[in-house]
Amino acid sequence: MNNNDSKHNINSDIRKNHGLRSAVLSVAIVVASCVMMAGCGKGTKELDKYYENMNNFTNNIGIIKERMESIDTASENASSDVLACLDQLEEQFKLLSEIEVPKQFSSNEQLADDAYSYMQQAVSMYHEFYDDPESDYSVFEAASENYSRAMKRVGYISSILKGEVPEGDGVDVTEEEATDFDPVTDDSVDEEQ
Q1: How many C-beta neighbours within 10 Å does residue 21 have?
Q2: Which residues does 42 contact at the CB level (< 8 Å), separation at least 6?
Q3: pLDDT in tens, 143-163
Q4: What is the pLDDT of residue 5?
Q5: How far is CA 169 from CA 18, 21, 79, 152, 166, in A?
Q6: Measured between alpha carbons, how far is 193 from 164 in angstroms, rounded to an integer?
Q7: Nearest CA to 40 among 157, 149, 180?
Q8: Nearest to residue 150, comparing CAs of 10, 26, 5, 40?
Q9: Does an H or E element contain 23, and which?
Q10: What is the rounded distance in angstroms from the CA atom of residue 129 to the CA atom of residue 137?
């Protein structure tokens, strides 16, 4: 092996290990956000089912996080192990996007769909980065940005479930008064008589 090949392999290893460590550490963010969802209040069967599904999502993400943290980034199989965990994360985000959302949390439906879209893109780009030794580091950076955006939406969902108003750049909050009945008006009383 000549000196240039050796230098390329060392740079590639450093680059990939840095990427692996970043991917492993950033999973902690999602689990911290998701844990906040556990123990939400109870209500109707529809709400109970929603909370149950969200808690399942949280638990599954926690399991994946533990797997990622246990990966030895110096291992020969580290890249494929991280990619396998990222594939599992993508599957969990797909399930999140398919959860039926009660009307009380209607905004969470779009947030979950967006989170899944961002996670799909992130995982695809992580695969591109780790599978191709010649890939540009900008692919990793773009994957990380998509990953971060997916996690941010999970954080917003967590805030909404806790009864908090999400905050941050680009967050527009629209408050609406929701009632489950039609108020009585003078006209409706006259019509019933």
Answers
A1: 14
A2: 48, 51
A3: 999 999 998 999 889 888 888
A4: 41
A5: 28, 27, 33, 11, 10
A6: 44
A7: 157
A8: 26
A9: helix 3-35
A10: 7
